[in-house]
Hints:
354 residues; single chain; six-stranded mixed β-sheet; CATH 2.40.50.140; five-stranded mixed β-sheet; 18% helix; 7 helices; alpha+beta; D-amino Acid Aminotransferase, Chain A, domain 1
Amino acid sequence: xxxxxxxxxxxxxxxxxxxxxxxxxxxxxxxxxxxxxxxxxxxxxxxxxxxxxxxxxxxxxxxxxxxxxxxxxxxxxxxxxxxxxxxxxxxxxxxxxxxxxxxxxxxxxxxxxxxxxxxxxxxxxxxxxxxxxxxxxxxxxxxxxxxxxxxxxxxxxxxxxxxxxxxxxxxxxxxxxxxxxxxxxxxxxxxxxxxxxxxxxxxxxxxxxxxxxxxxxxxxxxxxxxxxxxxxxxxxxxxxxxxxxxxxxxxxxxxxxxxxxxxxxxxxxxxxxxxxxxxxxxxxxxxxxxxxxxxxxxxxxxxxxxxxxxxxxxxxxxxxxxxxxxxxxxxxxxxxxxxxxxxxxxxxxxxxxx
Length: 354
């Protein structure tokens, strides 16, 4: 491979802001795997956000790159999988599997798509020092008629349209809106764009905690919600406490510690078979590797309010943010019914453009 921009390339990133800023280039925020695709003839490399290759996990996108991308190019975008008219991150994560046979089976059953939103190189020219407006024009010129599974991300400079996308597109599983300065040069690994994400709150049961990697202090609280059958399901964690608060929480939660965890609703977490019928903390995965998944069980008696952006099935998609304790709420009152559901919106409508 001999391109003006060679792999690995870490993608340019975005920092969170509360409101959509005016006077920018706007796109939907895709909930998938960020990927930079390098193509030089038949050679294709798909790089991840960390720079590590994703190529072997998406053989159908390697074929699509050879068929639908320019002969020599570097394209920034997102790998997504759609199911039932919306993005499905769980099916996407299933692709990161060591067995090639399983990867290819899943590629046939739930094929991925590549949504392109930036062009870093074309033929012998690097475009990384060109302003976003010129890179976007070049992207639309070379991929204007591209066919699935490759798509060009819809974009607009109309803030009112971006506001409408922010409200509508969540129903298709998208994550919010990205705003990019019009004169922005491409700078790998720099947070020069802006992301505006949905945030909601929920009252959840605190049923355990994990220790922080720095020592015997609280790293994250394990959160639960009761389902319709009265079972406490693990829905995620909240973290981002200060060092002082981590130490305080150990003492604050000490009266609730259950050792041994007999009678705890998640006491069977170490049994792999138990994870098949309930959502429990500590499930091993390809992402966790050798990471210590053990945790300290607590009597599920305390309730806290957390901020979250959206759900992925029956769990929080990302780490929730602790807001406050809710001594006025009983654990049994913390169920899924309180969670706000976005209005459904078909993903194909999103990809058809503004």
